[in-house]
Amino acid sequence: MSDITIIGTGNMARGLASRAVAAGKSVQLLAHEDKAKAEALASELGGTFTTGVVGDPIDGSIVIPAIYFDAAKKVATEYGDSLAGKVWVDITNPVDFSTFDGLAVPAGTSAAEELQKATPAKVVKAFNTTFGGTLVSGSVSGQQLDVLIAGDDENAVKAVSEFASDASLNPVQVGPLRRAQQLEQTGFLNILLSANDSLPEYQWNSALKFLPAV
């Protein structure tokens, strides 16, 4: 059994797996179809990994699909009741790529809330305001990354917070799962800044930081 299952082999999967290795966690890494991609990433990062493809049984108690929203919904449906009792970390920002001017979920809901309808897992929103490249190191400009976390299940939120803390990140619990609506809008704003070529200082290497009063 693994501590964490990460689905995907792209930039966010790399960043999250890097933090899992830093936290001393065992990781099951599942590629979409090509197991060799999971094996190559695991070999590069070191640590304790098992590899496979989507469709293999999920070992981790925490499941982090590092994939787009529509793909995440499909994975949740495919695994069905086998996800019961697991913590599903939704990192998605459901951007409407047809307009790049908003989110592709109805007003008054979020990707996380829609995913909770599709799975018996305990959905927690987290890591959607952090970029993959910044997760590799866990900091930007010497500042520890904040991980904004929303969820309805106290134990699930605690598990994700502990993972973030063990990975040398700063967990910030922002409230129930409905707060994912604000987190996804915030994540979208961060994406817009980084996609703006006239703002070279925000090219996918920046981070949001909440500074407490001293």
Automatic annotation (TrEMBL):
Keyword Nucleus in annotation: no
Domain of life (superkingdom): Bacteria
Key words of the record: Oxidoreductase
Record bears the keyword Oxidoreductase: yes
Pyrroline-5-carboxylate reductase catalytic N-terminal domain ranges (all copies): 4-94
A Pfam short name: F420_oxidored
Gene3D superfamilies referenced in this protein's UniProt entry, alphabetically: NAD(P)-binding Rossmann-like Domain
Name used for this protein in its record: NAD(P)-binding domain-containing protein
